[in-house]
Design brief:
Layout lengths: L5 H4 L12 H12 L6 E5 L6 H12 L14 H8 L5 E5 L6 H10 L10 E6 L6 H12 L5 E7 L7 H4 L3 E4 L5 H14 L3 E2 L1 H11 L3 H14 L3 E2 L1 H8 L4 H12 L3 H13 L4 H21 L12 H5 L4 H18 L6 H12 L16 H7 L3 H25 L5 H9 L14 H27 L3 H17 L2 H9 E6 L3 E6 L2 H9 L1 H15 L4 E6 H14 L1 H34 L8
Parallel strand pairs: 1-4, 1-5, 2-3, 3-4, 6-7, 9-10
Antiparallel strand pairs: 8-9
Helix pairs in contact: 2-3, 3-4, 5-6, 8-9, 9-10, 9-11, 10-11, 12-13, 12-14, 13-17, 14-16, 16-17, 18-19, 21-26, 22-25
Length: about 600
């Protein structure tokens, strides 16, 4: 028999074996026991948290002939067929590859037929957010009032992409991330059943990397077993997952607390060379700093929290303000990682900034505001240190406000107000600095429009009504595939003309026109989605809304003769086609009825 992955081999077969979702599984069991089964369910939550497994168990329980307190018996013919995937009344559909209107219409046509072997026909639609808008609309009525023998179970990892009209017609269950403790407990149980040795530290690393997903945890565990079949070791887990050695991260934290930047940078570089990521190191530092802070505040002396000897003794005398500052800087670095491809730089900046002295930040403060310094030095309690840190922050914010107030930067509407408020007696030379601010955008827009004018003319010369209708018909489908931050683009863009190879879209706002014109990645993504739904490639030509009417008017005036000739040719071609069709009808009638045919205009 071929090898079966752990997450498939150990997929839950009963509600009780589902980990970390007790509230949901208990509700589903009680619904079956009391006979209050709704017609539609929506399972939403992160990947690998049990949505599809619960859907399969629920479908199996609905058709089980020997229920055991709401649980499927897994022994009757229906349960065995469901486990083998051969139960005709349980249909699993992957919306990622069956997301069109035709597939949903096929479901709508088949739901009226009664189940053949079980009590219910159950449709499990996985990744339902991938359905197109047309497919969602086709599903609406059936989802609201299906036959009594039909149950729909929809599963999604991105609830925000599911239309509200669909959500309101279902019972929604929100699956949560599985806790590290539950992940570790489940993996240890599986390894015990497989008679494989393991180290607790290795299991803890896998649970941390899995980030609340049981499937991810078992996939990593499977990978480790492929690397070393006999046991699951801590060193192997670090090497396979690229996770930072927790003991070394503890040393980095100690170097940060002792303001030793070179040593902290060296240790961090060693972990990066071993395969750890900057995000992983920062996450671990935040976790350790938080636990250290809790130990200081609560007095809990749990030595199992850390691996290094005497670690708790070394951190107890550190002021709590230092931990607050370190956690804040680490979270800032984690946020910066999202906006750069050079992941090592935010980490290194954090390490240097965290080891720098807090006093340097207020060195330039006025003498009157330097009074808190002696209090900070003399204070022996955490309270005085915290107060001093807060006063330092106030000084920093005051300086920043003063600096910003001196900058000659104004919003666009403020520039106009200042310009109109200048008295007539003031020489014009003093009002000139504001003029470039008003003229600059106009100049850029005209330049961009002039560059696109030739492309717009090309589209208008070959524009057809059918091509424009094609673009407009796929417009709603784009809403279902674009990210939330990108959907706003569809509200400011409008297709106004289309040829067989290009489409002109007018942009409602000038700023959006400039941003969209320079964002080649977004335009390529929009082009690819249009090609996917329209089954034809269309290049995108942008034009500002304010310039569109003028460009179209200029085109009509400069191509008036050509447009009239083209229109006349179309009319003649249509008349010729109609005449030819009439002649064919007359000849066919004469062939059938002979001289009995009388022709009247």
């Amino acid at each position: 028999m071929a090898y079966q992955a752990l997450y498939r081999k150990w997929r839950p077969r009963t509600f009780d074996s589902v980990i970390g979702q007790e509230a949901i599984t208990d509700t589903l069991k009680n619904a079956i026991i009391r006979g209050k089964v709704s017609h539609a369910f929506l399972f939403a939550g992160p990947r690998g948290t049990g949505k599809t497994s619960c859907a399969k168990i629920f479908a199996k329980a609905l058709n089980c002939t020997n229920l055991q307190d709401g649980e499927p018996c897994n022994k009757c013919a229906n349960c065995v067929a469901a486990d083998q995937g051969s139960m005709p009344d349980i249909m699993e559909i992957d919306a990622a590859s069956n997301n069109g209107v035709d597939e949903i219409r096929e479901i709508r046509d088949k739901v009226k037929y009664a189940p053949t072997e079980g009590k219910y026909k159950v449709y499990i639609i996985d990744e339902v957010h991938m359905l197109s808008m047309g497919a969602f609309n086709a599903l609406l009525k059936t989802l609201e009032e299906p036959p009594e023998h039909v149950v729909f179970i929809l599963a999604t990892t991105e609830l925000q992409k599911v239309p509200a009209t669909i959500i309101s017609r279902t019972q929604r269950y929100n699956f949560k991330r599985i806790s590290k403790a539950d992940l570790e407990k489940r993996m240890k149980y599986i390894l015990d059943q497989e008679h494989i040795k393991y180290e607790d530290k290795a299991i803890a690393v896998i649970a941390q990397v899995a980030d609340g997903g049981m499937r991810d945890a078992l996939s990593i565990l499977d990978q480790l077993l492929s690397y070393e079949k006999e046991s699951v070791n801590y060193e192997d887990a670090l090497q396979i997952t690229g996770f930072a050695d927790r003991k070394n991260v503890e040393q980095i934290l100690l170097k940060l607390l002792s303001k030793d930047a070179p040593a902290a940078l060296k240790l961090a570089q060693e972990e990066l060379d071993k395969g750890a990521s900057s995000k992983n190191i920062l996450d671990e530092l935040v976790d350790m700093a938080t636990k250290s802070l809790m130990i200081i505040k609560t007095g809990d002396d749990d030595k199992n929290m850390f691996l290094s000897e005497d670690f708790i003794a070394k951190i107890k005398d550190v002021p709590t303000s230092t931990y607050y500052r370190l956690i804040t800087l680490a979270n800032k670095a984690l946020n910066d990682l999202r906006y750069t491809n050079q992941q090592q730089i935010p980490l290194e900046v954090f390490l240097v900034e965290a080891t720098s002295s807090e006093q340097k930040q207020v060195a330039s403060a006025p003498v009157a505001n330097a009074a808190p310094a002696p209090a900070q030095q003399q204070g022996s309690t955490d309270l005085s240190a915290e107060l001093a840190a807060l006063k330092n922050q106030v000084v920093e914010l005051t300086q920043k406000v003063q600096q910003l107030s001196k900058r000659p930067s104004f919003a666009k509407d403020q520039v106009f107000q200042l310009d109109t408020a200048i008295p007539k007696s003031v020489p014009k030379a003093k009002a000139k600095p504001a003029e470039p601010v008003k003229k600059k955008p106009v100049k850029n827009i005209k330049k961009t429009t002039a560059e696109n004018r030739k492309q717009v003319y090309h589209v208008l010369e070959n524009a057809t009504r059918d091509d424009l209708n094609t673009i407009k018909n796929v417009w709603p489908d784009l809403q279902s595939v674009l990210a939330v931050s990108e959907r706003a683009l569809l509200d400011v863009l409008e297709p106004v003309a289309a040829s067989p190879d290009q489409v002109v879209m007018k942009c409602k706002y000038t700023l959006w026109f400039e941003n969209a014109s320079s964002d080649s990645d977004l335009l390529e993504k929009l082009t690819s989605y249009i090609e996917k739904f329209a089954k034809h490639y269309y290049g995108i030509v942008l034009v500002p809304d304010s310039d569109w009417l003028a460009v179209r008017k200029e085109f009509v005036e400069s191509h008036k003769a050509e447009l009239l000739a083209k229109k006349k040719q179309q009319i003649e071609d249509k008349e010729e086609a109609d005449s030819k069709e009439d002649t064919e009808v007359i000849n066919k009638a004469k062939d059938l009825f002979g001289d009995a045919v009388t022709i009247k205009d």
